[in-house]
Design brief:
Elements lengths: L2 E2 L1 H17 L1 H6 L10 H17 L6 H15 L2 H18 L5 E2 H17 L9 H10 L1 H5 L4 H22 L1 H6 L4 H17 L30 E9 L5 H14 E9 L2 E8 L2 H9 L2 E10 H6 L11 E9 L2 H9 L4 E4 L8 H10 L2 E7 L6 H10 L4 E4 L5 H9 L7 H14 L1 E7 L4 E3 L2 E3 L4 E5 L2 E6 L2 H10 L9 E6 L5 H14 L4 E6 L7 E5 L1
Parallel strand pairs: 7-8, 7-9, 9-10, 16-17
Antiparallel strand pairs: 1-2, 3-5, 3-6, 4-5, 11-14, 11-18, 12-13, 14-15, 16-18
Length: 537
Amino acid sequence: MKKINGKYLKYLFMKGTENLLLHKDEINALNVFPVPDGDTGSNMSATMLEGCKYLESLDNETMDNVLDSIKNGTLMGARGNSGVILSQIFRGFTDALKGKIEVGVKDFAFAFKSAKEVSYGAVMKPVEGTILTAIRYLAENVEVLSEQKDFISFFEEVLSILDKAVKDTPNMLKKLKDAGVVDAGAKGLYYIAEGFSKYINGDTKIDLNIKTTSIPVEEIQMIPEDLKFQYCTELIVRTFESLSSNEENEIRSFLHEIGDSVVFFIQDNIVKLHVHTNNPGNVIEKLLTKGELLKVKIDNMKEQHEHFIEKEKEIEKKKNGVVAVSPSDGISKILRDLGVDEVVIGGQTMNPSTADLKVAVESVNAENIFVFPNNSNIILAAKQVAETVKDKNVYVVETKNVQECIASMIKNNPEEDPEKLLGIFNEVISEVDTISITRAVRNAKLLGEKIKKDEYLVFLNNKFVEHNFDFNEVLSKTFEKIDDIDKKEIITLIVGKEATPIEINIFERFINKKYPDLEIEMYEGGQVHYPFLVLIE
């Protein structure tokens, strides 16, 4: 085969997604950090699956329509750093092919150059030994790829190049070499390309019947008995093409199945809907297969009832609003009490997508929105939201843990000039000390240190500093590394789900004995993976 049309490209992409899904757990297991972190396989899979949803909604499979679906779908499904970078790879790739009816080997090869430029441009400090290296290897071998006689030999060469890139990643990142693994993102890109090759070689059966969720069951809030459906959900959507009567009926039936108080109508290509439901995310996903979101409004009726807020009351637009990512219900309550307007559940192992964050930003009635990602693996997705929201000013405060967000919110002034407020937040983050304590989930090597399973691991200001089986010992060594600890006044302790009463007692006795002038404030956070999150001010 020497030419590919839009329909064929659609199924290439879907086969690549299927192959990635088959290896998702393997890619997740390549995590080089001995703590539960954002799952690369899950993040990349979610990104690709959203692209497939866009493709499946196409009535007209022209090349441009397929390219737009891949570009928009991967953007809205992007989760974590790996997902965001993957979406930018496809953004560059699709931009290079726009306007073509068919693409040949040479077109496909040179699209890798555009993919490399766009993806590198999306990352402020590109790191080699990652998925970026894999796409760079392809871009640097365009001439060799262009010489292939057909797509069968083309993808054989693509896989050969990517295989070399994957094997080279440990030579570029010491932490990969220390752990004895290759980069998960680069390996994921290899499996996507392998899926392309399988389809080209005649394996055309595709099964995407694998469901993924961004919020585990344990994080879903219970609904009060007197309120059957908790969220008042309103969407305005511009459809890709006019909906058929069957599609309209399908959406109406879907809305009635998942909620009540349904209002649904179409004017030209604009869909307006209103529904009370417990799963607003499902409504958004359903409509994303039909078009693009123009406006999203989600109100928590449970909270409205508790605060005696009338549903139809007009609220004056605030100057500044806040969206923050939280790993648990307990921490979500702390953040809301401090003035956070919208909380997105997410964090370690469950990175929210660009779409999740955008929904939250759109739902805040304010001119300026400050987004606190509270995890280094979510910062890129938050920045992507800032680029896509047009009717509000979105500022990303690059918090890497929830403690930094809590400290920032204590200094929050909703009426302050947004640029000045951003400076205040960044200054607070630079001044506070944060400690995150977890346990190793496996034997590993980290920064030259041999880590044993179930040891305590301590991160001071987001940097790994100590490990030990003795909790008191690991606390002592960590606090010795804090500058000007004697000048600190308050220590905030957020207790996680896996913390034991003995550990809590050890922590309190340690502080009272070694640092009696520090006032302890303790909160039940309920977060998983990290028994203790600490803020020192």
